[in-house]
């Protein structure tokens, strides 16, 4: 049988709990799994009581309940595979199925004289845990009504002669077995629910953290955009003044002064590019349009730009089988530049950049790893990568570089992973969905706008 068929059959019998499941879905999955336990437990009990203890049971109605539960479970399992959440009414209905099924079984097996009536308490506890108060009270009320009915109306068990005169001891043994069964099921259920609750709390905490980080980014973006606006005018004035100075005979005829002025003008152009990039990231394109290039061309240009600024070696390891056209967004250049700058600061002699393409179709990604030979990240920093002001550099305002990298890449639908290398140093890996950079995708977005 094909593995895919086996997985689908397994999903019908035991719906999987997927990461990020809502608490209601997790509760329904758990109820479905407990119902399977009840089905197999009922069938095993019927076999033992009728075959081993030789008790004459009304097999037709007793077998009808587990058969109906099997059909209901398979139906619910198919619904669970297509749903992400369930209402309180739906969970109450699922739990009432179990209450009615247990009442049916007990009616044909001794009613209130059957020690398995204590399983109603298990269903009341489950309802109190997964349901709101009013629904929990309805479960308890229905269980009490079932118990009252079974006290006065039931089909007595037809015990064999050897057991007919010892009802009390038989009831005690049954009570002991029922107690152990209820204790085990309660532990399993409560432990699973507690795990689901902790996972839900962890996801909620992560959402709050992400919201706080995004709020921090918005405030930083507003500040940076305002600063860029204010810097634009003086930078333009300085550029005009330097242009005039370059034509002055005193400076033009002095090679040293001319070279120094050229350096100043080069750095000024770099400042203007940075300001333009900040304004573009804020949605204000200011004369610098994103360029059409390829992944390989983007990395080569970026590496060449940084090689002119460092005394050591910046080595690019190209592991791409092909190449793809992309939009070289200035904001992306700054983000990758942040990672390179951090690596150069701790390892000025050698920085490695590895690039390759991974995945197929819509899931295809550009994988970019920047590695250094520095001291690596401290354990407490590794645990909190992506949070603002987490840095080992010990200076005020530090730790924003990786914070911006993580959040910008996350906005692009990608991910950032950081690790210390076994051979020494650290590596930062950026996984960027190609769909967010590809030329065709960008053109489609512009047409929609």
TrEMBL record:
**Cross-referenced PROSITE patterns:** HIS_KIN (PS50109)
Name where it's found: Cell membrane
The record's section on SMART domains has: HATPase_c
Q: What is the lineage of its organism?
A: Bacteria, Pseudomonadati, Pseudomonadota, Alphaproteobacteria, Sphingomonadales
Protein's name in the database: histidine kinase
Taxonomic source organism: Novosphingobium resinovorum
Q: Which CDD domains match?
A: HisKA (cd00082)
Transmembrane regions listed in the UniProt entry? 34-53, 59-80, 114-131, 138-154, 170-191
| Protein's membrane topology | Multi-pass membrane protein
UniProt keywords, alphabetically: ATP-binding, Cell membrane, Kinase, Membrane, Nucleotide-binding, Phosphoprotein, Transferase, Transmembrane, Transmembrane helix
The GO terms this record gives for MF are: ATP binding; phosphorelay sensor kinase activity
Question: Which Pfam families does the UniProt record give?
Answer: 6TM_PilS (PF25323), HATPase_c (PF02518)
As recorded in UniProt, its EC number(s) are 2.7.13.3
Record field: catalytic activity: ATP + protein L-histidine = ADP + protein N-phospho-L-histidine
Q: Which residues form the Histidine kinase domain?
A: 226-436
